Amino acid sequence: MDSTYIYICLSDYMSTEDPFEELLDECYICMEVCSTPSPCLCENVVHKKCLHTFIEMSGNEHCTVCLAKYTPARPGYKKIVLKAVLFLALYMLAGIIGQLVWDAMSHISVEIKPPWSSEHFLGAVAIGTIILFGNSFVNRYRISV
User: Fold this and answer.
1) Whether 134 and 90 share a structural domain
2) Terminal C-alpha separation, the chain
């Protein structure tokens, strides 16, 4: 055998590349591409849905790789507060617009009621319904706006 042939064969096996490097970006449960770190010590990547399903089905609350207990996910209070403030602002705006439209259609003087009144609530529901229907109509028929 030629020594060059042996060198080439050995160099293929002695590569400095990690053969498992491509697995570092795959969920260790479903083996699909993922970038979310596991909530344990090893921080291998895993989809939140895969991990939740695994914990529900197995009842095991410990990582199968590092055997550490999964730390519970903290709720995103900033996101919750932001959504609540956004909902309140949209409720106020939709209620005012709904009242203005109703008063304009009724030919009566414009009088803005407080947000806890039934007029404000109905105006907000009407405007919200129109926006949701319009959005679903545009998405359904793929109308470009």
Assistant:
1) yes
2) 72
User: Residue 67's pLDDT is what?
Assistant: 85
Looking up tokens 């209070």 gives 77
Distance CA 3, CA 25 (A): 38
pLDDT tens digits along 101-112: 888 888 777 778
CA-based nearest residue to 55, from 37, 44, 35, 69? 69
Which residue's entry shows tokens 């359904």?
140
Shared domain check, 98 and 48:
no
CA atoms within 13 A on the CB side of 62: 5
Q: 115 falls in which pLDDT band (50, 70, 90)? A: confident
What is the average pLDDT across 34-41? Answer: 84
pLDDT number for residue 27: 85
Which residues span the domain enclosing 94? 77-141
Is 53 found in the same domain as 92? no
- Alpha carbon 60 to its chain centroid, in Å, reads 25
